[in-house]
Amino acid sequence: MAFIEAKDLTKHFRIKQGIGGKTAILKAVDEVSFEVGKDSVFSIVGESGCGKSTLARMLIRLLDPSGGKVMFEGNDIFQLSGNDLKEFRRSVQIIFQDPYASLNPRMRVYTTLSEPLKIHGMVSKDKLRDKVAELLHSVGLTPDMMNKYPHEFSGGQRQRICIARSLSLSPKLIIADEPLSALDVSIQAQIINLLQDLRKRFGLSFIFISHDLNVVHYFSDTVAVMYLGRIVELADADKLFDRPLHPYTELLLKAAPKVNVQKDVRVPSGTVSETDVPSPIDMPSGCSFHPRCPKRFDRCDNTEPALIKVDGRQVRCLLYESNKQG
Ligand SMILES: Nc1ncnc2c1ncn2[C@@H]1O[C@H](COP(=O)(O)OP(=O)(O)OP(=O)(O)O)[C@@H](O)[C@H]1O
Ligand SMILES: [Mg+2]
């Protein structure tokens, strides 16, 4: 049994185009399936707007899907209620991109960190201060900081507070949606090392969303590459970085500078030109990547590729149809 599993997970938004315009369907996430094992890191990469955050919001039941389901420890999360739902809310936590926006500016750190503990009745009242001090310590902050407000901290420290809050309920899975992209490059390496350390110490699983492929390579076991709402390649991290199969994965890797994430202060990653990204409202026919693909051939314009197994991974590209396994 997978720890968490998405099955044909889909989110289509109905949107109005222009004033009094027609309603159109925006396919933000389209039939996405994957499994994440216990104690592992599953990363999702892809350009802005490809559906990463929409997917994350469905995985924690912040957003209802238009189709498909999410199974967590064998249970459909959208069917949970009562104590089972409360247990799910405790077990799965999320960290967002902007640590300032996700902290209440009028709350001292003590309140931010103790509130979830109180709500879930995790710690008796007389032990709250000790528990908050322990949480601060686990993310490299000091106990005296519990009396301060968010504006008194740097960006990196604020993200540490958000991480401490996500740890407060002893979760099993943390979903991190671009947790580094609002931080200075020099701070990013510290935060990723902290996440790596916490992962080992608490046996956590992660779903990690990032633009930065160097970080993804360093931190992940498995990587899913998304393009316009769909997975186009899903593979072990080492395999994917060693030899990307999908032309889109290849382009993403070419755009990322090679550096040692663990040690270095890094140059921010480049991105593939986003000028000609097709819209998820008006998808190209055939393979949705064909208008930008350097390896396209005639059939790509009108034949939609399926996600097939090749070389122990999954890839959605007509180039590999003849290599298909099982
Ligand atoms: N509530 C909504 N209503 C209509 N469209 C939405 C809504 N939320 C997201 N979208 C659209 O769905 C698509 C996917 O958005 P999403 O935020 O999931 O992308 P993303 O991969 O997280 O991008 P980024 O890297 O910029 O965070 C985009 O085209 C976005 O405009
Ligand atoms: Mg996003």
Explain how this protein is built.
- 29% of the residues lie in helices and 22% in strands.
- The chain is of the alpha/beta class and 326 residues long.
- It has a single domain, classed as Rossmann fold, CATH 3.40.50.300.
- The strands form 2 sheets. The protein has an 8-stranded mixed β-sheet, with helices on both faces.
- Helix 3 crosses helix 4 and helix 5 runs parallel beside helix 6.
- The longest helix has 18 residues.
- The radius of gyration is 21 Å and the shape is globular.
- About 2% of the residues have low confidence.
- The site of magnesium ion has 3 residues, from helix 1.
The number of helical elements comes to: 9
Q: Describe the sheet with the most strands.
A: 8 strands, mixed
CATH topology: Rossmann fold
Instruction: Tell me the CATH superfamily.
Output: P-loop containing nucleotide triphosphate hydrolases
Which cofactors or ions or other ligands sit in this model?
Answer: adenosine-5'-triphosphate, magnesium ion
Number of domain modules: 1
Percent helix range: 25-40%
User: Which H/E pattern describes the elements?
Assistant: EEEHEEHEHHHEHEHEEHHEE
**Given the C-alpha coordinates, what overall shape results?**
globular
Secondary-structure arrangement, i.e. CATH architecture: 3-Layer(aba) Sandwich
